[in-house]
Input
Amino acid sequence: MISERINRIVTSTTMKIAAEAIRMKANGIDVINLSVGEPDFPTPENIKAAAKKAIDNNQTTYTINAGTVDLRKAIAEKFRNENNLSYSLDEIIVSSGAKQSVFNAVSAVVDIDDEVIIPAPYWVSYPEMVTLAHGRSVIVNCPEETGFKLSPELLEKAISPKTKLLILCNPSNPTGATYTEKELHGLAAVVEKGSYYIIADEIYERLVYDTIQFKSFASISNTLKQRIIVVNGVSKTYAMTGWRIGYAAGPEKIIAAMGKIQSHTTSNACSISQHAAVEAILGSQDSTNKMILEFKKRRDYLFNALCNIDGISCYKSEGAFYLFPNVSSFFHNSTNAMRIENSFDLSMYLLHEAKVAVVPGSAFGAEGFIRVSYASSMDNLIEAVKRIKEALLKLH
Ligand SMILES: Cc1ncc(COP(=O)(O)O)c(C=O)c1O
Output
């Protein structure tokens, strides 16, 4: 028998779309995949060279559970230089991807029936991680009109004596919405009145465009910093999703608890990847800077192109590599083959009719929207928009 706890975990509907897209591709169908959550750039050469050197130097054994001293020193330096945050090495832990960092942090603080506030649209794994920790997710719907961002008023309403944790993703997956410093101060004023913890998932920190200046939530106030676990990693910033390196920084006792979990599950993150991550963080940032410029160009193109499609409206998000257009005006429409009632139906329709894969908003707790990734070449984006437009025109 499968445990009751695992039975409560839902298999993501996104997997159905992804599986169908893979099946179609395998059958030779030219599917453009805009459902991707990773940069379409190769890992920069200097980082790959550092990994090769680590292998040649036999740096292939277990490392300290929390991560090598060199990597944690590099991470501490990054926090100091880029975020104006000071952490000792005991306040930092390296994990096998930021996903594990979030999972360890949730497991470290959440007890049975503790409430965890999760603003929606949310990253798909947060509620499931809370369920795995026997906690209860309190989903707060953040409307499109306010950029899908959590407001102090909405946060205040969601807090209860059982609140143990708030998870704030900034910039957001799936919307790309990025909080201004002023907005973070507004949230901090509410958070400071409580005693719950905060996971600040800042994995898309460097991928911000326009004039917005990214600000880490932990840098807003020193008292708040004592309750914040900042999660970050190299996956998105350095096109290193497969290397599996994420990290967390926060109060020593939480980091130690996360270390306990890790020591009995996966132990240290891959030693070779840790060496590569040192180079990623301390080495040349040229490749990342070029990637950011390219993402901005694509975001601008895709935003304008989507807004030019009749029936679509879109919030111009400032970060990550996603747009989250509102497609609800196509619901209750039909084709000869099917009737579209929700974002899942529309995503399936676009996959079959336009041969473009996107993710339904319902997967992120936000019906009425689809997530479109621009981690795909400009040529692909141009062709995808053309196909989406043609497919939507066929609905009536
Ligand atoms: C918001 C968010 N947090 C964490 C992660 C996990 O990143 P990693 O690949 O380092 O595990 C992702 C990856 O999609 C993400 O979108």
User: Anything to note?
Assistant: Residues 286-307 form the longest helix (22 residues). The chain has a mean pLDDT of 96. Residues 37, 97-99, 102, 123, 169, 173, 201, 203, 233, 235, 241, 246 surround pyridoxal-5'-phosphate (CB under 6 Å).
